[in-house]
Amino acid sequence: MYVIAVYDVAAERTGKMLRLCRQHLHWIQNSVFEGELTAVGLRELEIEAEKIMDLSYDSLIIFTNTHVHRVERRIIGREKQEIDQFL
Amino acid sequence: MYVIAVYDVAAERTGKMLRLCRQHLHWIQNSVFEGELTAVGLRELEIEAEKIMDLSYDSLIIFTNTHVHRVERRIIGREKQEIDQFL
Question: CATH number of A2-69: 3.30.230.20, 3.40.1280.10, 3.30.70.240, 3.90.190.10?
Fold first, then answer.
């Protein structure tokens, strides 16, 4: 399934969340990631995220589209993604 | 159509982008917005955003799902949205 993940976590946890999300998805901007995951892969991401996060403070939003119709994506302005290779 | 918008703009432009996006969509986290828009409504948002943005530096990503199958959304941790009423 197609997944978009967006996190908002305290500064001390952003490094770990960035590494975790990049193991499963593609970084596209700020704390925004996208990619294709199986249900098992998504569950793994969620479980690992819950270990990192302070669930009373941090937030991770996961958008999924299980149907064949993909979400279309348009970028206005600069594509930050190409910087990703240097991060 | 269902729309998710995520922006990454220079600090001096975040105020204007926040106000613009909140006129068209619902704030859900950081610089992340979602909602239902017509094609005309989405085009208006894009045109206004282009006026605000430095297109060589800033980035606005727009995800759209034109099909009846909505994108599902799950939140892990705190729902930041309810704070929106106080912003």
Answer: 3.30.70.240
